[in-house]
Amino acid sequence: MQYKAKVYVTLKPSILDPQGRTVERALTHLNHQNVEGVRIGKYIELTLEGERADVEAQLRDISVNVLSNPIMEDVRFELEEQAVEQSA
Amino acid sequence: MKTAVIQFPGSNCDADALHAAGNVIGQDATFVWHTDTQLPDVDVVLVPGGFSYGDHLRSGAIAARSPIMTAIRAFADAGGYVIGICNGFQILTEAGLLPGALTRNGHLHFTCQPVRLRVERTNTPFTSAYTSGQTVTIPVAHGEGNYYADANTLDRLEGEGQVVFRYVDNPNGSLNDIAGIVNDRRNVLGMMPHPERAVEHLLGSADGLGVFQSLLSRVGA
């Protein structure tokens, strides 16, 4: 089975996010006075093939040990079955 | 003293590092490519600055998982001396050889300037040529040099005397003004400023020489 994974990496709340803060300030200057708490993260897509349990374990390993740095980032992922076209 | 300077795709301070450890100090220095799985017979491994893998994903993240790092980890575990400078510091934290992480500079700008550092510890193989509390001028050039570690790690670093260099005027927002640290065994050093760019008076400062002279006096010619 083929799976599509969506991985979201965000800075831990305790880490200063200067990029988010700059964007927040810009939004205020653009008169969006009710916006706060802007945080900027990363979105990573990948496709994996295999049994669901194996793929899930592998994705957890990739997400925690490669795609994010647990010292400064949080990571979460979603895994969904991908329809594969059957060849005749 | 024999030094290996590791080259990753995107390293750009490798030649300066080789020049400092080789020509200026007058010792053997050689390049080692990142896909190699073994180190030559050396006393010191230098992980140079630059933009390994274009800093994609995170600074140093991909380089930290390249083949040569397994050999560097074994070398460090055996007590070998390892220095990571700038991107090399980022690589060593990503590889878990040093605690903490380097994040975006607080002001978001790439900063490239000579900075003043205070030498906090001279009881390391990298700093014995300095005097305690000495102020030195060494350039920085980085966009992600903001040192971060959780409160427990920071307490341990301070308590164990592992903060080796501190900024006099913090250029990036680093916690506790940290510019360079050693591991608990004191055989691995990571620093954001570039000592290899300050080894000849012609370049404006020779204050970085002390790092190389300290190692030379430790391991011998």
UniProtKB/TrEMBL annotation, chain A:
Subunit structure, interactors included: Part of the FGAM synthase complex composed of 1 PurL, 1 PurQ and 2 PurS subunits.
Species of the source: Deinococcus maricopensis (strain DSM 21211 / LMG 22137 / NRRL B-23946 / LB-34)
UniProt catalytic activity: N(2)-formyl-N(1)-(5-phospho-beta-D-ribosyl)glycinamide + L-glutamine + ATP + H2O = 2-formamido-N(1)-(5-O-phospho-beta-D-ribosyl)acetamidine + L-glutamate + ADP + phosphate + H(+)
Pfam hit, one: PurS
Protein's recorded name: Phosphoribosylformylglycinamidine synthase subunit PurS
Location(s) in or outside the cell: Cytoplasm
Record-linked InterPro entries: PurS, PurS-like_sf
Gene3D superfamilies, per the entry: Phosphoribosylformylglycinamidine synthase subunit PurS (3.30.1280.10)
A GO biological-process term: 'de novo' IMP biosynthetic process
Job description of the protein: Part of the phosphoribosylformylglycinamidine synthase complex involved in the purines biosynthetic pathway. Catalyzes the ATP-dependent conversion of formylglycinamide ribonucleotide (FGAR) and glutamine to yield formylglycinamidine ribonucleotide (FGAM) and glutamate. The FGAM synthase complex is composed of three subunits. PurQ produces an ammonia molecule by converting glutamine to glutamate. PurL transfers the ammonia molecule to FGAR to form FGAM in an ATP-dependent manner.
Main enzyme class: ligase
Highest taxon of source: Bacteria
Primary location: cytoplasm
Functional pathway: Purine metabolism; IMP biosynthesis via de novo pathway; 5-amino-1-(5-phospho-D-ribosyl)imidazole from N(2)-formyl-N(1)-(5-phospho-D-ribosyl)glycinamide: step 1/2
Family: Belongs to the PurS family.
Keywords: ATP-binding, Cytoplasm, Ligase, Nucleotide-binding, Purine biosynthesis
GO molecular function, one term: ATP binding
UniProt-listed Enzyme Commission number(s): 6.3.5.3
CC annotations in GO: cytoplasm
UniProtKB/TrEMBL annotation, chain B:
Biological or metabolic pathway of the protein: Purine metabolism; IMP biosynthesis via de novo pathway; 5-amino-1-(5-phospho-D-ribosyl)imidazole from N(2)-formyl-N(1)-(5-phospho-D-ribosyl)glycinamide: step 1/2
Alphabetical GO biological process terms: 'de novo' IMP biosynthetic process
Subcellular location: Cytoplasm
Gene Ontology MF term list: ATP binding; glutaminase activity; phosphoribosylformylglycinamidine synthase activity
Nucleotide-binding as UniProt keyword: yes
Catalytic reactions of this protein: N(2)-formyl-N(1)-(5-phospho-beta-D-ribosyl)glycinamide + L-glutamine + ATP + H2O = 2-formamido-N(1)-(5-O-phospho-beta-D-ribosyl)acetamidine + L-glutamate + ADP + phosphate + H(+); L-glutamine + H2O = L-glutamate + NH4(+)
EC number: 6.3.5.3, 3.5.1.2
Alphabetical keyword list: ATP-binding, Cytoplasm, Glutamine amidotransferase, Hydrolase, Ligase, Nucleotide-binding, Purine biosynthesis
A Pfam entry, by short name: GATase_5
A GO-annotated cellular component: cytoplasm
Signal sequence segment: none
UniProt-annotated catalytic positions: 86 (nucleophile), 194, 196
Superkingdom, taxonomy of origin: Bacteria
Subunit structure: Part of the FGAM synthase complex composed of 1 PurL, 1 PurQ and 2 PurS subunits.
Annotated NCBIfam families: FGAM_synth_I, PRK03619.1
Function description: Part of the phosphoribosylformylglycinamidine synthase complex involved in the purines biosynthetic pathway. Catalyzes the ATP-dependent conversion of formylglycinamide ribonucleotide (FGAR) and glutamine to yield formylglycinamidine ribonucleotide (FGAM) and glutamate. The FGAM synthase complex is composed of three subunits. PurQ produces an ammonia molecule by converting glutamine to glutamate. PurL transfers the ammonia molecule to FGAR to form FGAM in an ATP-dependent manner.
Protein name listed in UniProt: Phosphoribosylformylglycinamidine synthase subunit PurQ
Organism the protein comes from: Deinococcus maricopensis (strain DSM 21211 / LMG 22137 / NRRL B-23946 / LB-34)
